């Protein structure tokens, strides 16, 4: 079976054909580093990590390049820096905010079992490429300088008699309707209401760089140009897959397409545009004001990262997710069982049923149903390999159980000792003693379960009631 992916640009699920199978290239919009990442931000990280792993499985690890950027220049970062470090010069405060937040982001997504991308470019390290794209756009008649800003003109793009895509093609919006629906107050430096910023002047004290277009004042880039520049630098003028959350389709991705295609005279920026659906919490939109805003960091205090990962993958990536406590608890139960059954077993190869589900536009709910099938048919080696393909089983059973115990604050050594005593009592058929120990454990809130491992040897496992 071949890989098929849903493409937002054509609104169809199509067979995936890489431009160069020896160098499959994917770009995903990464975080703006000003605060802890929330569980919604974890969704694109996990979804595109599964795709990265699948592509490596299909084309070979050395033949897939995954770029996920870090946006480290943004108004939200400046505001946060001024708020959190009022005593420091702004640039120093900004460095602190982006360093701390970047580190936290890495700790969070590592715990979710996400591989690091092949390259993680930072916007501030690609200002030269941004200036170059801007110069090309001005030379091509697609952009202009006004009052120390540089603006991109979608109307100039659509007036060009060429093979360029139409502005609005990705988000299926008509430029004429955008013009008609524009607000009355338009920034004075814009010729048309639909023009968007490529470059703007910096306020005193803000991060600033020499401007393009002969502008004397120092300035800084707009958000959209950052991704066009980083994708170009690391993946070239055209590449295979561009991903991100559904909220980024307009204006961010529409504008990336416009910038890149007009600068390099391309018909396409990426051949497949993939967007994950949104995540809400207990049936409500996540927001700080509703008090249901959950960070990955907070969740990791209560749940192993792989539980969050499994919980995320139970829903197909294009559908909305309702993130609930109930579903998390179920995911934890499932993963506990899979760990005990398969984590210490040497993996065979990933099961065809699992791989085929993933080939069908990353159908992870179906892949998970196939994992349950492997468990039910006692294929521990197949389950082990399939779970690993999906980014699970990074720990041994002992590590997994040990971490759960640590998190619960229970003395694991004491419990292990009691279980060993009970096993010995059962071996000498002293059932009164073995029952007494079971009750003692129950009084501590620990439930034990007698079962068999994949080799048929008796084992006693435990969990909290
Ligand atoms: P941001 O830092 O807000 O630019 O978001 C980083 C990534 O997380 C982008 O790909 C967003 O589309 C995605 N994202 C933000 N909020 C959610 C959410 N509630 N559900 C799913 N994805 C989200
Ligand atoms: Zn982007």
UniProtKB/TrEMBL annotation:
The keyword Zinc applies. InterPro entries: Cys-tRNA-ligase (IPR015803), Cys-tRNA-synt_Ia_DALR (IPR015273), Cys-tRNA/MSH_ligase (IPR024909), CysS_C (IPR056411), Rossmann-like_a/b/a_fold (IPR014729), tRNA-synt_1_cat_dom (IPR032678), tRNAsynth_Ia_anticodon-bd (IPR009080). Its EC number is 6.1.1.16. One of its GO terms (cellular component) is cytosol. A motif ('KMSKS' region) lies at residues 285-289. It is an enzyme of class 6 (ligase). It catalyses: tRNA(Cys) + L-cysteine + ATP = L-cysteinyl-tRNA(Cys) + AMP + diphosphate. Its main location: cytoplasm. Its cofactor is Zn(2+). One of its GO terms (biological process) is cysteinyl-tRNA aminoacylation. Residues 353-401 form the Cysteinyl-tRNA synthetase class Ia DALR domain. It is found in: Cytoplasm. A motif ('HIGH' region) lies at residues 31-41. Monomer. Belongs to the class-I aminoacyl-tRNA synthetase family. NCBIfam families: cysS. This is Cysteine--tRNA ligase. It comes from Bradyrhizobium cytisi. The lineage of its organism: Bacteria, Pseudomonadati, Pseudomonadota, Alphaproteobacteria, Hyphomicrobiales. The gene is cysS.
């Amino acid at each position: 079976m071949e890989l098929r992916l849903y493409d937002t640009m054509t609104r169809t699920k199509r067979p995936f054909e890489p431009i160069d199978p020896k160098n499959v290239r994917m770009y995903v919009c990464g975080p703006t580093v000003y605060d802890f990442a929330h569980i919604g931000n974890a969704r694109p990280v996990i979804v595109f990590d599964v795709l990265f792993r699948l592509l490596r499985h299909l084309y070979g690890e050395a033949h897939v390049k995954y770029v996920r950027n870090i946006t480290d220049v943004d108004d939200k970062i400046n505001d946060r820096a001024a708020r959190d470090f009022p005593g420091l010069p702004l640039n120093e405060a900004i460095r602190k905010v982006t360093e701390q937040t970047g580190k936290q982001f890495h700790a969070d997504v590592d715990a979710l079992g996400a591989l690091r991308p092949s390259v993680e470019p930072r916007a501030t390290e690609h200002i030269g490429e941004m200036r170059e794209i801007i110069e090309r756009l001005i030379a091509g008649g697609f952009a202009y300088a006004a009052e120390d800003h540089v603006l991109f003109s979608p109307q100039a793009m659509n007036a060009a008699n060429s093979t360029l895509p139409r502005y609005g093609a990705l988000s299926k919006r008509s430029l004429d309707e955008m013009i008609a629906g524009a607000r009355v107050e338009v920034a004075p430096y814009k010729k048309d209401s639909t023009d968007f910023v490529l470059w703007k002047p910096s306020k005193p004290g803000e991060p600033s760089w020499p401007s393009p277009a002969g502008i004397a004042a120092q300035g800084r880039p707009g958000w959209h140009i950052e991704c066009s520049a980083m994708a170009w630098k690391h993946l070239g003028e055209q590449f295979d897959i561009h991903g991100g959350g559904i909220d980024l389709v307009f204006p961010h991705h529409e504008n990336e397409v416009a910038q890149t295609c007009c600068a390099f005279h391309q018909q396409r920026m990426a051949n497949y545009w993939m967007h994950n659906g949104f995540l809400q919490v207990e049936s409500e939109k996540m927001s700080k004001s509703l008090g249901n805003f959950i960070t990955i960091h907070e969740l990791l205090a209560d749940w192993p990262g792989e539980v969050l990962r499994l919980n995320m993958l139970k829903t197909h990536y294009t559908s909305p997710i309702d993130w609930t406590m109930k579903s998390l608890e179920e995911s934890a139960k499932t993963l506990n069982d899979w760990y005990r059954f398969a984590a210490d077993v040497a993996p065979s190869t990933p099961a065809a049923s699992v791989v085929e589900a993933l080939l069908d536009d990353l159908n992870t709910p179906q892949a998970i149903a196939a994992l349950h099938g492997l468990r039910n048919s006692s294929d521990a080696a197949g389950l082990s390999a399939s779970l690993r393909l999906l980014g699970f089983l990074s720990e041994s059973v002992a590590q997994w159980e040990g971490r759960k115990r640590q998190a619960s604050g229970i003395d694991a050594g004491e419990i292990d000792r009691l279980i060993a005593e009970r096993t010995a009592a059962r071996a000498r058929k002293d059932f009164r003693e073995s029952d007494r120990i079971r009750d003692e454990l129950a009084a501590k809130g620990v439930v034990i379960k007698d079962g068999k491992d994949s080799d048929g040897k008796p084992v006693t496992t435990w969990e909290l009631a």
